[in-house]
Design goal:
With 236 residues, the chain is mainly alpha-helical. The protein has one domain. It is built from five helices and two strands; from the N terminus they run βαααααβ. A two-stranded antiparallel sheet has the order 1-2.
């Protein structure tokens, strides 16, 4: 016995509701297999559902399009910050700078390792520390670190900082659009269940095969289970 399969994608939800809407537009009210109340709900709901789908696509696309550029900026900021600290450590190792130099960047005086820069937060945190620390060093008349200079580090850091803020805005917009769409999906599901229940109840007077055939005109979908084969019931 075939069973009713409710829509589980946005396209199938739209298809089901649009089929019912078309049927409602072309069928006299007293011949329609679902209520006028449900018909009106579908009529007013569909545009908002389509809009939510489209806005979600746009928000996701904007976020996704910027991701590659953002990842590149993050990689460069990380690289320059790491290289700056490594150069400072090499100078300390050679004896060109004293170990106390590290403390300007809020590093431990005897810490020879480059701090972790694996997350956005760590890159932003350590970038800020070395930029401020180097500014203090230079203001005291101490020799600036070069190759890379802090000016070059700052350029890539600030690019990443701006991109990070933009990406957060785009991410939040994408999340907001997704939440709105999820809400609309829930409404679409509930409306479809109500619609299909009404249609099946109205058509319950017909034999099973004829009932399903007529119901399919309203967008209802029936499928057989894998182990089943179509059986045409006797109308009597």
């Amino acid at each position: 016995m075939p069973y009713r399969r409710l829509p589980n994608t946005d396209s199938s939800r739209l298809r089901a509701l649009e089929s019912a809407l078309n049927k409602g537009d072309t069928t006299l009210p007293f011949n329609l297999a679902f209520s006028q109340s449900t018909f009106q709900k579908i009529k007013y709901f569909l545009p908002t559902f389509k809009e939510a789908i489209e806005m979600n696509k746009i928000a996701y696309s904007r976020y996704n399009q910027k991701s590659e550029v953002y990842d590149n900026m993050q990689r460069k900021a990380k690289m320059y910050i790491s290289h700056f600290i490594q150069v400072a450590n090499f100078a300390i190792q050679r004896g060109d700078l004293p170990p106390q130099t590290r403390t300007f960047y809020e590093l431990e005086e005897n810490e020879k390792k480059t701090p972790s820069l694996n997350t956005e937060r760590e890159i932003l945190e350590w970038g800020d520390k070395i930029i401020k620390g180097e500014a203090v060093r230079v203001s005291k008349g101490l020799t600036p670190i070069t190759n890379p200079t802090i000016a070059v580090v700052k350029v890539h850091y600030e690019k990443f900082l701006r991109a990070n803020k933009t990406q957060k805005v785009l991410y939040e917009a994408s999340q907001t659009a997704q939440k709105k769409l999820n809400k609309k999906r829930k409404e679409a599901h509930e409306l479809t269940v109500k619609l299909w229940n009404e249609v099946e109840e109205y058509l319950s007077k017909y034999p099973p095969n004829e009932k399903r055939e007529k119901a399919s005109e309203y967008g209802l979908v029936y499928v057989y289970r894998k182990h089943e084969t179509p059986v045409f019931e006797n109308a009597n």
